[in-house]
Every structure is written in C-alpha cells, then in structure tokens.
Design a protein that fits this description.
Oligomer: single chain
Number of strands: 8
Shape: globular
Strand content: 35-45%
Radius of gyration: 22 Å
Distance between the termini: 75 Å
Helix content: 10-25%
C-alpha cells in the first residue's frame, strides 16, 4: 500500500514538474520580461523610424566611440541607410551603412568603406530594458572574419 502511494505521489510530482517546464518561457522569450511596460521586447516591435537619428557605437577595445547616423533608405521601405564615422577629429574615417531588422528581430547592417563592397557586417539585438535605445551585438570584418562586440546607444531622438 505504501509503495502504491509513493508511486502515485511520484507520478503526480513528475506531471506537475513537466507542466511547469512547458509553461515557463525559454530562450529569448524569457528576456522579453525584461522590457518595461510599453517598451518593445525586441526590434521587431520597433517602427523603422525609431532607428533614425544619431547613435554611438562603442566597440570592445576601442578608446573612442564611433558616431552612427541612420535615416530612411531611399530605395527600400522599412530599411535604413546612413554612415559610421570612426577616429578623432584629426583623422576621421566614414563608411556607409545600410540594413534593416530581420524577421528574427536582429538589427542587421552592412558596412561599406568604398560604397561598392561590404567591408563589415553588424548584427545586434535590442536590449529589452532600454526601451528601444540600446542594441548589443557583433561587428564582423568581411576581409578576415575578425569580430568585435559592440553596444549601439541612442545619442539623439529619432529624426524624420
């Protein structure tokens, strides 16, 4: 009799554990709870206009932040075009940027130093607690696959 009660108790506990595991959010969905009320959980919920304006990109190992400017892409609705400027006032270098938010909610930007070929690729996820003002991701050099982590932070309000 006691063995039967323990067996039933064990089966009930196992069922409760499995139900709790199925109901609990996993992976990226768990991060969505980090978003304050009214703020997007990922970049898919942001209107493209929220990407327009000035941003600061801070790369691991770099002393200075790069300046990023994004605006509406003139040829592709829902996409952005812009520039990234690195280096100090004495030796700035500007590259072109173009991209969009993927179906997976990733901000994807192609960088071109010469305006013809892709020199680097940026991929970043929205930080849910930032309310649309910060992305964290990876910059990958197209020539040698070198990667750097970066944080892209809103520097000014969106511009039209």
């Amino acid at each position: 009799m006691r063995a039967r009660l323990l067996s039933r108790w064990f089966a009930a506990a196992l069922c409760a554990l499995l139900l709790a595991a199925c109901a609990a959010p996993a992976g990226k969905d768990a991060a969505s709870s980090d978003a304050p009320p009214g703020c997007p959980a990922d970049a898919r919920a942001l209107p493209v206009e929220a990407l327009y304006g000035r941003w600061l990109a801070r790369f691991d190992g770099a002393a200075d932040a790069a300046s990023v400017a994004l605006h509406a892409h003139p040829e592709y609705a829902g996409s952005v075009r812009g520039s990234v400027t690195r280096g100090g006032p004495a030796s700035p270098h500007t590259s072109q940027l173009a991209g969009d938010v993927t179906d997976d909610g990733i901000l994807a930007l192609d960088e071109s130093r010469d305006g013809r070929s892709i020199s680097a690729v940026w991929t970043a996820e929205l930080v849910p607690a930032s309310c649309g003002k910060e992305f964290k991701g990876t910059w990958r050099n197209a020539a040698d696959d070198r990667t750097l982590s970066f944080v892209l932070t809103r520097a000014s309000p969106p511009s039209p």
